[in-house]
Design a protein that fits this description.
Elements (H helix, E strand, L loop, with lengths): L9 H5 L5 E5 L5 H12 L2 E4 H7 L3 E5 L4 E4 L1 H13 L3 E5 L12 E6 L2 H10 L4 H12 L2 H9 L5 E5 L3 H27 L1
Parallel strand pairs: 1-5, 1-6, 2-5, 6-7
Antiparallel strand pairs: 3-4
Helix pairs in contact: 2-8, 5-6
Length: 190
């Protein structure tokens, strides 16, 4: 997928650096992949979960699932300005509430459920939270949400089971970012 193949919003056409969303069920490797993409492509990494916690973009805490009740409106309001100029690599486990105009590439990471189970267990997740996330991956909840929320032209589904998968994914996204920048330079020169 090249950046010139995608349907672009007016905001996207003005940006010289793309915004990339890395999403997927918890345990698919989003945070690590986003860190590696940001470093390889020269993007700024935004971990939405950290924003929610540190800037209180939530409506309280859910004890049963050991997580915050996300306030989507607060998150969008907080992120609007930072997304305008591009150059962001956003990491979050859900995606449907983000405006499509923000992103030039949406990457949905997929992982075998056994690996998700093991990764979440290693993190100390509660049993009910592990089970819910494994079921979400089986039912491809995040992938379906991305398909319903974004143009297929900017959507990329990638496997994230091994370190080799992750490295290949980072290379692919970094190549997209570089092509996006080159395309913008060419457009500005015309």
């Amino acid at each position: 997928m090249s950046s010139s193949d995608q349907a672009q919003s007016p905001l996207s056409k003005r940006r010289t650096n793309p915004n990339v969303l890395i999403t997927g069920t918890p345990g698919t490797g989003k945070t690590t992949t986003a860190e590696m993409v940001a470093a390889a492509a020269g993007l700024e990494k935004v971990t939405v979960g950290d924003l929610v916690k540190h800037r209180k973009l939530h409506d309280g805490y859910n004890e049963e699932y050991d997580t915050y009740w996300l306030n989507e409106d607060k998150v969008v309001d907080e992120m609007e300005d930072m997304m305008a100029d591009g150059g962001m690599c956003v990491d979050f486990h859900t995606c449907g509430f983000f405006p499509e105009r923000w992103f030039d590439l949406v990457v949905v990471l997929r992982t075998d459920t056994e690996r998700i189970f093991d990764r979440l267990e290693e993190r100390g997740y509660k049993g009910n939270k592990i089970q819910e996330n494994v079921e979400c991956e089986i039912m491809q909840v995040v992938l379906d949400e991305a398909r319903e929320s974004y143009s297929q032209d900017i959507l990329l589904e990638l496997q994230s089971n091994t370190v080799d998968d992750m490295e290949a994914n980072v290379e692919r996204v970094a190549a997209f970012v570089e092509q996006f920048r080159q395309d913008r330079k060419t457009e500005q020169a015309i």
